[in-house]
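Internal tracking record. Fields below are filled automatically when a chain is submitted to the structure queue. Please do not edit lines marked as system-generated. If the sequence contains nonstandard residues, flag them in the REMARKS field before resubmitting.
Queue: standard
Priority: normal
Entity type: single polypeptide chain
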Amino acid sequence: MRRVVSATCYAGLLALAGGAAGRIYHGQLFALLVAGAAVGSVGLALLLVRGPQWTVAPLSVVCMVGYAGFCVWYSAKAAGVTGGYGSVLADAIRNAGPRLLTALIPVEAQPDTVLLPVVLVWLCGLVCGELGVRAARAPLALVPPVLVYLGALILAGPHGGVEAWRALAFVALAGTALAVATPRAPGPQPLGPDLPARKRAPLRNQLRARAAGGLALFVGLAALVVPLVVAGIPHRPADPRVAVSPPQTDTLDQDPLARISGWMQNPTQPLFDATVSQPGPIELAVLSDFDGVTWSIGATYRDAGRQLPQPSAPPGAEAPASTRVTQHIVVRELTGRLVPAVNTPRQVDGIRIAYDEGSGTLLRPDGLRPGTAYSVVSQVAHANPNELPVADVPSGQAVARYLGTGGKVPDDIAKLAASIEEGNGGAYQRAYALQQFLAEHYIFVTDIPSGHAYPNLRFFLLGPANQGGQRGSSEQFAAAYAVLGRLMGLPTRVVVGFTAKGTKGTIHGADALAWPEVLFNGLGWVAFNPMPTQETVRRPLEQDYQPLPEPSTPSAKPSSVPPQLPSKSASASASAVPVAAGPWLAPWVPWAAGGTLLGLLLVAQVSVVVLRVDLSRRRLAARAPSDRVRGAWLELLDGLRLAGAPPPAHLTATEVADWAAARRDRLPAVSRLADLANLVGFAPEWADDDDARAATGEARAYLRGLRRGQGLRRRLLWFLRPGPLRWRHGGPPAPGAAPPPSAAGRGVRPATPPRAAPPGGAPPGVAPPGVAPPARTR
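SYSTEM-GENERATED OUTPUT FOLLOWS
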């Protein structure tokens, strides 16, 4: 029954520890598979506990391979992973480790995200079964579950949340496993029935006082050190995902905005076939960063399963109304890794993808190939048009990347932005005025070379019309809007995609499109169309734009990095209030205090070990043989006390030897050492070198066996306890000195009063005249 309870505790500990990582997984499948590995491994060890030990590991490994194969098959079926079982298994084995740290949270239980945890939990269950069930080494058997728990917490990082019930249940099961472990062999105890009643109460009170003092010292140190250490620990755990590289785009996708010109040059090129439930734009990439030359993707893609996370509502607003749009896409001649889909995708079937939560775009790490087919379910959000006229835009470091203009902004472009902004106070008014200005003063063409750096934009915006200026494709319109918008204080980005004109058809190169988006508080990203339509009345640029006068002071010149324009709303101005100063305690002070205290404790412990070694050396390497015998006897008494079984003070040396033999079976006898201790108690000059070697040999052999038979805690603390330094001070007695008055109290009590040796002594092994020496065994 004890083994059954222990096995149940270890299986529960591993299930709880592995399940701690299930907080970042989608659904309960991961926790169930890990719990199955824990129960299977520990249960198998329990079934084989009476069999030969060498058969346990091979049988457990065979069962582990079978269970891991089942987990791969079942998780692939549940997640809808396509492909043959062999290819899925090979992919899971090859990518099990990396995808655990690159997967999007919540992680879907797929073959590559469950295989490694299941194998680790099974192996830990094998170790727990052998150490805890077969060998009854509960402290050692608790190490694997603790390591699994720690690894699960590190894997979850700041995304797992707090589960107090799991920690309490883990501690309760660990305590139960320790409680039901095999008890110590019975034997005489310091408070046994052989102790007189008059000594029992004082000794019990003394033990209670020592325990209370030790507990008070521990609590005091914890109360002093823990707050200092905790004060220097970040409130959020570290995220291990920052240490690995997520899936990256290839060189073809680094500048998707420049690909529009190539698609426009081949307007009939079939890129992919799309069947959508609602016509509209299909996004390919979102470009957030501009360095003055190129717009680039600022996304961080994470491996994802079929289910994608729900996009959070904009700050200070409820989730906007949305429409469900389904798509089925078959790739024809579209290349690269970026996957076209309607924003924002919620479910993807048919291919393995990586997902960027910030932009809502998809990426296929293996790249697109002709014939690749997949289905997407998206939720298209709709901004409330009645809220746009009064909506404001965010500012500050949170949107700094959407306001950066990169490099040196040409002066005439900065003046054009200031001219468009003049007279438009609200954020939406500025965004709409910019859209109308570009639509009315510039011409859309498809046969223009690619380019959206500052020289290209300057020629598109201000170049002579008779020389090709003021003409551009959607690439120049979107890039110019985004740059001018940022100069006007609007957080902008550029989106590259395609236009689906019907619910079913082929998307060609002529359907490629780029458009800008502006971020509004409470509404999210809102798309604008700065290109002219058939109803747009074109106006010459010179009619509405006159260059601004030169600034009178150098301070009015536009800087290479324009300043963050202050928001015209009360909410934005409130964000500019300086943050209050931090706490008076510097962040390094708690760490320094805790490190100093730990260093002092370490130095003290090393000193104890050095002094203990020196004490044993002085005892067992003394010059006089009698002193070495006394030192061996003192080492034996200290060892018994370190083992928690000090002999009572009223016992003779022979009775102490019997007491020591009763501590544990198969320990070397110390009867010879007891006889020699009696000898040096009567006549120390009779002991010779052979006696000293025999005494030290018996003491060392007994102490080695005694230490091996102790629990893990006592073995680890055997040489670290300072007790022997306090129990007996000083070195060995001087050669030929009489035994100290407390020798009887130390376990060396002569049977009769010692007789004084005659003047001059006697040769070793020869008793003085009239004195019969004690019995000796050579």
